[in-house]
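Course assignment 3, question 2. Fill in each field.
Student: A.L.
Task: Predict the tertiary structure for the chain below.
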Amino acid sequence: MNLLTEDDVKARLDPARLVGVIEEAFRSRYPHTLIPLRTQMRLSGAVLLIMPCYDRQDRSLGMKLITVIDTPPTPEEKIQATYLVLDPTTGKPTASVSAAYLTDLRTAAASAVATKYLAREDVRVLGIFGTGRQARSHLRVLRLVRNFERFLVCGSNPGQSREFAQEMARELAATVESVYSRTCAAESDVLCTCTTAARPLFDGDLLRPGTHINAIGAFQPNTREVDSVTVLRSRVVVDTYDGVLAEAGDLLIPLAEGVIARGHILADLHELLLGKKLVRRNAREITMFKSVGVALEDLAAAELLAGENK
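Answer field:
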């Protein structure tokens, strides 16, 4: 069995190629892929997620096991993940991939695809809520689809936010500012929420017209990063209907409150890429992409890695 470490993945998984692979996966492979709702198991101090995926046309089979730890020793240890590439006939593992970085990158790549199709062409300011792994990957990857000139970050700890901003400014050779939540929400053209927050991070009335939001952190029905005002003001796209309507408190809570109806969710990512649903109609509309993660993204990333490993 082929074994790939985190260092192997970091060396071989090219972000730009992954954005293209995930875009094509949602456009072309999604209709003939079996993606069961992921299993969530509550452990002592963590949540275990089990995410299988089977492409019936390409006969590709894989499964990710991911543990999200409540209070990790360090932010880098928040996620522990392994991806198994399986023989579609026997179910025997043919490759085992250490998948924490893979998860970071494929999530940011999906946000980049949504940003490519939903954000205005003239966006210049990227705002990030969070200072962890996903915040870092979104800062790196979203630059591939838009020409940002200014970067804002907002974390729960001001000191950590300043350190994170300084670190990312050096890495990106760009202006990265640590700001308060109000500034991050009000001055961003594209806004990414990459946190483990259980309650809204900002007042949705602060968003300026034309903003695009990628809400990727919350994945349980009772947690959310954006408030009902944000959702009500937004034209909403999801990665998958089934996953979001089972897990995403960002949308389930305003649905339960009666603030929005089911029809407020305009499209999934497959429909958006095919042009089946019109979402952004003008430069002043606010758009939102709500993602809880899709197993097809992991399968596509693992296959890209396998190709790089040949």
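Instructor remarks: The two ends are 14 Å apart (CA to CA). The longest strand covers residues 46-55.
Grade: pending
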